[in-house]
């Protein structure tokens, strides 16, 4: 059959086996000016599918946020000036993911270009942007939140040990330290080409050092946090688990749904409620 113009009956027959709606919608020519999935018969069919096969998801977080935050304040993630590039990368990526609620693809697109990265000398503020060629998943004008602006967390001078301890979770501090090391490596080894990309996060392993860091690597901080705490790491972690935990924790601590959606670039509360909401109540 012609995948671009086959009869509607063939589409419904196929959907009984595999619900590849997005793939079909991207190439099928539709009916006049209407998409194939706006057709009343297709809408009735998919509504019946959702009734017969409702999506089952757990509202329990895949991992414990307090455990991970405690691990990030202690070795091997501290002291920040002495740890390896691997643990500095993992810690910085995890703190940025938690405090920005951005997609993994958004974090991977962050750039060290002077036009994309600004950090105050006193580490009280950091402004991060993706490279200019990056295309957001949500491209409507109201939700093109490309800029990540972060305030310093418990800046010195500290009044007590608790404030000093919490300062170790400052995303601006971690980003500043990570960026300074990366720029130093780039300057000192320009001919060797340690940094082979302007992407903020780069590989730290010797055989691929300097290349863009993959999305999968960004989740390794959670595994390492569990290992350092003597706990069994969670299995089958999804790429968006951090987005779910951070946004849900914000909700249960009083942040409005509108502010959460704006930060995470969700056009409406529906994606948050349907796919990301977890029970992170105290």
From TrEMBL:
Signal peptide region: 1-23
Domain Tyr recombinase positions: 54-282
Sample GO molecular function, one term: DNA binding
PROSITE patterns: TYR_RECOMBINASE
Domain of life from the UniProt record: Eukaryota
Any single biological process term in GO: DNA integration
Keyword line: DNA recombination, Signal
Name the record gives this protein: Tyr recombinase domain-containing protein
């Amino acid at each position: 059959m012609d995948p671009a113009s086959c009869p509607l009956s063939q589409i419904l027959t196929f959907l009984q086996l595999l619900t590849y709606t997005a793939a079909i919608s991207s190439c099928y020519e539709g009916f006049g000016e209407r998409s194939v999935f706006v057709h009343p018969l297709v809408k009735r069919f998919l509504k019946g599918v959702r009734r017969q096969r409702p999506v089952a998801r757990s509202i329990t977080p895949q991992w414990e946020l307090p455990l991970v935050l405690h691990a990030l304040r202690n070795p091997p993630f501290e002291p920040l000036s002495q740890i390896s590039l691997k643990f500095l990368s993992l810690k910085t990526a995890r703190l940025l993911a938690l405090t920005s609620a951005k997609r993994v693809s958004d974090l991977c697109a962050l750039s060290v270009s002077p036009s994309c990265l600004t950090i105050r000398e006193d580490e009280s503020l950091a402004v991060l942007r993706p490279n200019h060629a990056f295309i957001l998943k949500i491209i409507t004008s109201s939700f093109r939140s490309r800029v990540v602006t972060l305030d310093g967390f418990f800046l010195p001078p500290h009044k007590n040990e608790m404030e000093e301890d919490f300062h170790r979770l400052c995303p601006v501090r971690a980003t500043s330290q990570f960026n300074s090391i990366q720029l130093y490596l780039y300057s000192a080894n320009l001919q060797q080409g340690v940094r082979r990309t302007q992407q903020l996060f780069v590989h730290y392993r010797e055989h691929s050092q300097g290349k863009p860091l993959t999305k999968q690597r960004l989740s390794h901080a959670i595994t390492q946090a569990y290992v350092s705490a003597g706990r069994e790491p969670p299995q089958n972690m999804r790429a968006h688990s951090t987005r779910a935990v951070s946004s849900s924790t914000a909700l249960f601590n009083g942040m409005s749904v509108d502010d959460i959606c704006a930060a995470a670039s969700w056009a409406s509360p529906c994606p948050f409620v349907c796919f990301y909401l977890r029970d992170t109540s105290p």
